[in-house]
Amino acid sequence: MNAASIAALSRAGVAVEVVAQTGSTNADLLARASTLAAPLLLIAEHQSAGRGRAGRSWLSSPEGSLTFSLAWRFDGGPQALLGLPLAVGVALADTLGTLGQQVQLKWPNDVLKDGDKLAGILIETQSAPGGGTWCVIGIGLNLLMPDEMEAQLGRSAAGMPWLARMDRDALMAALLDGLAGCLREFTARGFAAFSARWNLRHAWQGETVVLLDGGVVRHEGRAAGVDDSGRLLLDTDEGRITVMAGDVSLRVKA
């Protein structure tokens, strides 16, 4: 991929850097956050130590994946960022939809295709010098899912072979435009501007699910979407409850 080409194809006005290989684009941008003056997109052709939520590793391949992080500064503290991972999921889904690929969303930070994981989102934050918060939004997107990678994962995962044939610079520019538009809208209106769109793509709407914390079932109920703060709505035998995103895992009940 070519940084100048991506920046020229994009309408976002965001600086772009491409590196052949790194451990983690999120870690790299977090290390640079105190010196950044404007948003920056960092793309790695290969990422050797990619991370998912709760410290999980993210496996990728140069040919079959896109791995990138976007650093974006927000005014205010972490409370102003409630629902941001879900808003980013909406942005990815909307962009992929314009490219002819329909996907679903799983609370709190996964993009699914045909029930299998297609993309993951990891957002990390750091206080900005002079106030505000730098957010580093890391995304891993599968394009091809070879059998050997599925074997490493130990579960099925989704790919998008049609997008793998698309010009990578044009694809990255489209994703950047969708993300930048999302972040500007989120700054102005918060997650309430995205909740209806998220619920329309909710993969497990009406399904009976369990919430696991450290492998222990904490809640069970029928998934009823999310509210305007990004909290999961769960209809239990005791009534409706709301769940904030934390170190929990959501599963369809077997």
UniProtKB/TrEMBL annotation:
It comes from Massilia aurea. This is biotin--[biotin carboxyl-carrier protein] ligase. Its EC number is 6.3.4.15. One of its GO terms (cellular component) is cytoplasm. It comes from the Bacteria. InterPro entries: aa-tRNA-synth_II/BPL/LPL (IPR045864), Biotin_CoA_COase_ligase (IPR004408), BPL_C (IPR003142), BPL_LPL_catalytic (IPR004143), Transcriptional_repressor_C (IPR008988). The lineage of its organism: Bacteria, Pseudomonadati, Pseudomonadota, Betaproteobacteria, Burkholderiales. It catalyses: biotin + L-lysyl-[protein] + ATP = N(6)-biotinyl-L-lysyl-[protein] + AMP + diphosphate + H(+). It is an enzyme of class 6 (ligase).
